[in-house]
Amino acid sequence: MTTDVVFDFGAVLFSWRPDLLVAEQFPSQAATPQAARALAHDIFHHDDWVSFDRGVLALEHVVDRTARRLALPRHNMSTLMSGIGERLAPIPDTLELLTRLRVRREQHGDVRLYYLSNMPAPFARVLEHRHDFLRWFDGGVFSGDVQLTKPDPAIYALLETRFGLEPARTVFVDDLAANVAVAQARGWRAVRFESAAQVEPHLILPSA
After folding, report:
1. 40 with 131, same domain?
2. What's the confidence (pLDDT) of residue 203?
3. Is 127 exposed, middle or buried (0-12, 13-18, 19+ CB in 10 A)?
4. Cα distances (Å, whole numbers) of residue 112 to 71, 93, 148, 151
């Protein structure tokens, strides 16, 4: 039997440190690590960003709204947001783990690889263009392409139906507890990501 392994992208396969990105663009407002984390939260956890993530608000509009709401320079906000796709770098240990899963698929045929990522469409296109290893995946869903975001159960259901995933034979890796909890409620074997070494033992199910 085949195990379907589903990866989140941000903070799992790709680095995601919004506090550092914010500190670069707004050094006065993010002068300390605590201030940078607070400002990053105000930017990336607001409904405007969620709407952008879900593909229902354009990049220029989320830039305008966020700069105005937080009284920050629009130019810096535009630079911050428009450059995020290029700043998402692969996490070496997770990429190495993905490489070994790809080899296992080729040698044994008992694993398939998918992704389920909250990712605005402009950033998704950048990742697809910049990183050839995304072609290793058998498929996946970006939130910005389907107007759904985790932890909405509908985006999990979409991945299941689109690619024929069986919940009991699906392993999901995500860094956020809420996303993991919804996957577990659907019967997926979900693991909250802390490191590649920590999740590795969970990725291949016993043969049935």
Report:
1. no
2. 87
3. buried
4. 46, 19, 23, 22
Q: Quote the DSSP letter at residue 193.
A: -
Domains in the chain, number: 2
pTM over 0.70: yes
Task: Residue 95: name the closest of 133, 137, 142 by CA.
Answer: 133
Same domain as 172, residue 93 = yes
What mean pLDDT do residues 158-184 have? Answer: 97
For the record, the structure tokens of 41 come out as: 């939260």
Whether 192 contacts 180, CB under 8 Å? yes
| Cα(152)–Cα(147) distance, integer angstroms | 11
pLDDT at 206: 47
pLDDT at 208: 40
Residues 42 and 115 in one domain: no
At 72-104, the pLDDT tens digits run 999 999 999 999 999 999 999 999 999 999 999
Residue matched to tokens 């975001």: 149
Among residues 8, 6, 11, the alpha carbon closest in space to that of 189 is found at: 6
